[in-house]
Amino acid sequence: MGMRYLRLIGLAILLAVAGAAAYWRGGYAAWFLVWFLAGAGLYAVAVSLFCLMQVKVERRLIRDVLGQGDALTVELDIRHTSLLPLVWLSIEDRFHSGSRGGSEGYALRKLVFPWFGGRTVVRYEVTGLRRGAYGFGNSELVTGDLLGFSYKKRSVKSGGANRFVVLPDIRDVRLSKLPRGLGEEEPVLGAKPSLQQNVGITVREYAAGDPLHRIHWKSTARRGELMTRTVEPMEELRLLVCLDAGESAYRGQPALFEKGVSLAAGLLASAAEHRLGTGLAVAGGGRRVLECSGPAGFRDGVSDYLQLLAELAPIGEMSFPHYLLTEAEPAAPAGSTLVCLTPSLTDDLVAVLSSLASRRRPVYLIHLQPRSVPSVGERERKRLLEQAGCGVWSYAEPLPHREVRVYAEEQEHSASA
Question: For the chain, what is the total number of helices (H) and then of strands (E)?
Fold first, then answer.
């Protein structure tokens, strides 16, 4: 039995007691109480029967694909048929995220006073949402009498927009052409070299007549003989971004996965800016490889990638090195650059990336460091990768914290059209 029926039963008991007292003892006060309780009871029953008889809710979104930091603006257009004025109306609109391996729910709760208005429009904004795909549930409307003896609740499936997507945070990542051969330079933690498409840097032995300002001193010190830096044309650069999405790699460290997704989004956006061919390979339970697209279609391709990253969650136990060797690298067109993002810098990964580099496949590794300072083992593995001709970039910068806020902007009431 619902609470509202218990309240009505309690009201009926009070009315019976007041009627008995008025009958046996009489008096104006006793009879006033009887008539007052009787009127309140009739009004409570009338509210249950004749308010919110028909309800229609239309939901409108300013846009259904949002970037990080954008505000979600929602407008609820509520039309109802009621034979009694609505003294108060409580509106609740819920939405939840089912991506990223869990579910987060949020709600707007707003109290309005429409009285004789048959149409109510409520606008509200939500800020600070994290990446993911969100879906709206039913809108709940509640009204009742002034004394709280009865209320009527309607759960309505809203028309219009019922889903929206928040894209991942796009980090500012710029990668240069991988230096090949014996002239690789050690990367600086947090450095963002520019992405270039027209020239590449190589190192060769010094020849008589080479300008002194082109001597590569690091390679010279390493080799024990003069080495010259040369600039030569590059082929069209293509990127295949390979993200480790295995659950075991991020167990207990969800922030690391968010960093990986954010950096992958930054790489794709940087490639789009320079009109480069791009591809995205995800290693996990729901792994997929998207073919590298040409520059002409980069806008649509990157948009698809970002929406895929928005709903991505770490899942599955597939070995990232095995995935790179058997699925991602064979799918990449010849000459394309592999950019690998993972927090697990293992011996197996070093062996696979070194093997790819030995076959003249340009390879970058972005190490998602769980700590600001790498361990001794991680330093040694990075040194081995650099000696094999791989570019190594360490990333330990924390992501910004955002607080979700839901607040109503305004409301208006009018007669139903």
Answer: 9, 19
For residue 75, give the nearest of 64, 62, 66 by alpha carbon: 62
Confidence category of residue 200, pLDDT binned at 50, 70, 90: very low
b/e sequence 185-198, b meaning 16+ C-beta within 10 Å: eebeeeeeeebeee
Residue with tokens 């990232």: 320
Instruction: Verify that 309 and 343 share a domain, yes or no.
Output: yes
Q: In what order do the strands lie in the sheet with 363-368?
A: 288-293, 277-283, 238-244, 337-342, 363-368, 391-395
**How many domains, in total, are found in the chain?**
4
- Cβ count within 10 A of residue 322: 13
CATH of the domain at 66: 2.70.50.60
- CATH number of the domain bearing residue 260: 3.40.50.410
Is residue 376 situated within a structural domain? yes
Task: Please report the pLDDT score of residue 134 as a whole number.
Answer: 92
The pair of three-digit structure tokens given for residue 312, joined into one six-digit string:
């991505």
For the entire predicted model, the pTM comes to 0.74
C-alpha pair distances (Å), 267 with each of 112, 174, 189, 274, 393 = 47, 7, 17, 11, 13
298 shares its domain with 337? yes
Whether 277 and 387 share a structural domain: yes
Same domain assignment for residues 324 and 388: yes
Which sign, positive or negative, has the C-alpha torsion 73, 74, 77, 78?
A: negative
Q: Which H, E and C letters describe 340-374, residue by residue?
A: EEECCCCHHHHHHHHHHHHCCCCEEEEEECCCCCC
Domain that holds residue 131: 54-168+403-414
Alpha carbon distance 298, 197 (integer Å): 15
Say how far apart CA 404 and CA 96 lie, in whole Å: 12
Percent of the residues in the chain that have a pLDDT greater than 90, as a whole number = 23
Start-end of H helices in 187-234: 217-223
Confidence band for 297, pLDDT divided at 50, 70 and 90:
very low
Three-state DSSP class for residue 43: helix
Task: Check residues 147 and 402 and name the one with the higher pLDDT.
Answer: 147
Assess whether 141 and 225 both reside in one domain. no
Cβ(89)–Cβ(112) below 8 Å: yes
Categorize the per-residue pLDDT at 92 as very low, low, confident or very high, splitting at 50, 70 and 90: very high
Each residue of 136-172: b (16+ CB within 10 Å) or e?
Answer: bbebbbbbbbeeebbbbebeeebeebeebbbbbbbbe
In a domain, 285, yes or no: yes
Q: Which of 416, 352, 417 is nearest to 390 (CA)?
A: 352
In a domain, 187, yes or no: no
